[in-house]
Amino acid sequence: MLCLVSRKIEMDAAFFNNVGSEQRSEGDGSENSSSRSGVGGGMFEYFGWVYHLGLNKLGHEYCHLRFLFIRGKYVEMYKRDPHENPGIKPIRRGAVGPTLMVEELGRRKVQHGGKGGDIYVLRFYNRLDETKKGEIACATAGEAQKWMEAFDQAKQQAEYELARGASARNKLNMEEEIDLEGHRPRVRHYAHGLKRLIKIGQGPETLLRQSSSLGPNSSEGYFQTDFGDAVEAYEWKCVRTVNGVRIFQDVANTESGKGVIVKAVGVIEATADTAFEVILNTARHQRYEWDTLTGDLELIDSYDGYFDVVYGTFDPMYLSRWHSKKDFLFSRQWFRGQDGTYTILQFPAIHKKKPKRSGYHRTKINPSSWEIRNLNASMGSNTPRCLVTQMVEIPSKGWWRWKKNHFSNFEKSVPYALLCQVAGLKDYIGANPALKFKSAASVIKSKVPDGPVSNAEYEAEAVQDEFYDAISAGSSSSDEESESDELDQKDAKVKLKNVAWAISSLALKRASIANANKELDPKAAPITIDTKQFHGSFCKGNDEADTNCWTSPSGMGFMIRGKTYLEDNSKVKGGDPLLKLIAVDWFKVDKAIDRFALHPRCLIQSEAGKKLPFVLIFNLQVPAKPNYSLVLYYAADRPPNPNSLFAKFVDGSDMFRDARLKLIPSIAEGYWMVKRAVGTKACLLGKAVSCKYLRQDNFLEIDVDIGSSSVARSIIGLVLGYVTNIVVDLAILIEAKEEAELPEYILGTVRLNRVKLESAVHLEV
């Protein structure tokens, strides 16, 4: 259970992995109206049940149910709900400081109260000293993401107070280093001056849920069409319907001779969290009710919280006349996007723990993927809905044979059994009311009038202990050895959202008409940029046939926010980039490079580079063995316009940059599973990975640490395995959140054509 305030603002979130579920004030129907609210509009409060993980003084692991409060920048932890137990004292308390980092560690199995289950773990640490750390866990990935937003809100509140000129004492207190393994901090008292809250999630009894009782989080969906933020080459044709589930074939590349891509699509009356948990759950008694093929599953191994290997058996008597039993192994890799969409990739696998078994024929399950995303509730209904899509790769010969025979044998094939999983999932959830929880989002109004709430009104005294003390793994009291009492669930109501998304697809045929030139100084005379003066270590391609090279495509392949986006969520095709890509460096390094612009080999250090009005240096740090750095140089023919959004980003705070820097990825050519992993949705980089900025002279350098996110590491690991056979398009832009900032424009693009890892040049740091 998690309670969030009704407004969400721009967030300083360099340490987030999966952020995207937005909260709105009561009656707010615009996707971004909440983003326009400032922190100073009032204090925010978040609260809910979590698990506190760590080691006790004897070195034993514990997993305790705790009630967590976030008030402004302060954090409190209770053994019981203080709403139902007035006067109860928090067992831990601390302040969120500017060095707090939050990392989502993914799914983990734990034991609590004699029962086992899966939870989603968040790790907290001090970026200046990673030995100072702690962990909490939540019931679903959606709740974990909301807690990440809550901590980011607290961090932004601290930044806001500093920006408003907080006292030197408070500034000093926020910068003090603390001992995570030390004593529990003293308890202090605060006033409760809050505005309005939203209660989200279920009670503690559903945190560690069993297979018969899944407690979903009320993630809210925004993307009602099948469009991403990059134009894809799929052309889907409906070829069958099974129990209300449509089966499509991709007919865009029917003559390619490769495997045929088929997908099943169905709308399920449950949240995406619920559907995701059912799909991932390996409990036999549950899978027997909906999965005809992979009902008998055994978890063999798991890695990093986002990847596991499962073993399964099935009796083919339902698929063919042959009765020899079959077994299989496949890996599952999953992640949650910033928009709340889940993606699960399933590949055939081998594992030393499961060699071939006597009496069973080892077979390969077709490569497949799941995509689960929330939909808005129907008009007049509070029932949550999600769109579930399963894509399966089928050998082309078998597919054409089945089509010619009017699908007479298709119903007895493994691919057909896979595609029927969507229909089985839909019927199973529909027949189990326990899985169709009400969307637990309710607005709780306080008696405090609207308006700014000062720091003095909120806190009774300064807190010198940072948050790590409030959540540290160590404990000096028996309070951490005991369990908390059970609490009752409370009913909640659902907020209906704006359905203006219905007309958003009409914008797809419109081209962007943004006048990006207003972002550059109109008083400065533009210069002519001669790209022949600049030479990076990675070569530029002459045409599409070239490989191991880069080019700079137009922005027409990317969808960006249009002029009326705040009213109707419409997106338009991007125009020409504002900045010109003049060179690319491709380095192999022993460790990640920060502040590369100061390195003698950086292009900006050349005489020609120093004469450019402005250069954006985009340093993508790729974790691997060895590490790589892809450095993109974007030049402007004039300096930024001092009154523009571009200048605000270039010269603004890191908090503002993290909240606005956006990347749109797209696999233009390549294996379809890699396309599903990368996706085409825009990603706020500062909310997904750690970004560092260096502003000097005529340049801004952005160092993007892909390795700072376990999800990003997982995806980039998959991409590197296919990198020599794929074409990657990237677009960089600044997210527009105010009407005056619309329409958006693209800062720069790059196309990476079948990159060879061995072509990277070694760089001495």
The secondary-structure class comes to alpha+beta
Instruction: Please count the beta strands (DSSP E, at least 2 residues each).
Output: 33
Task: Please summarize the sheet with the most strands.
Answer: 10 strands, antiparallel
Question: Overall 3D geometry?
Answer: globular
Number of helical regions: 15
Unreliable stretches (pLDDT < 50, length at least 5) are 1-41, 171-201, 208-226, 438-465, 467-514
**Kindly, what is the distance between the CA atoms of the first and last residues, rounded to a whole number of angstroms?**
47 Å
What portion of the residues fall into strands of 2 or more residues? 25-35%
Whole-angstrom Rg:
26 Å
Mean pLDDT: 76
Share of residues in helices: 10-25%
Offer a quick outline of the entry.
The chain is α+β, with helices and mostly antiparallel strands. The radius of gyration is 26 Å and the shape is globular.
